Amino acid sequence: MAQQDARRLVERFLVGGVVASPGHAAYTTTPAGRLRQRFAEQDGRQANDPVRAARVILRAVEDPESPLRLPLGPEAIDRIREKITGQAEDLDSYETLARDTRF
Taking the model in full, what pTM does it have? Predict the structure, then answer.
């Protein structure tokens, strides 16, 4: 079954049935504090439609050939492509040296 990568979908995760605890001032400038702030700023303003994403997920679940990782939205696809392109460039830059391990 595919794992969905649902970055930047519109989700009202800080309203309704979910209650966020207040942040602690000591953590404001830490990675956790910055992430909490980013979540608050993005809440309800993401670029992608969760209904359309749900349709894609359902279609992938029904498809026996669906990928293990299912990117949702152009941002997820772009981020994955950027990552694997960088990894391929790293591999290419050390390929000759890395292959030189045989007796």
Answer: 0.59
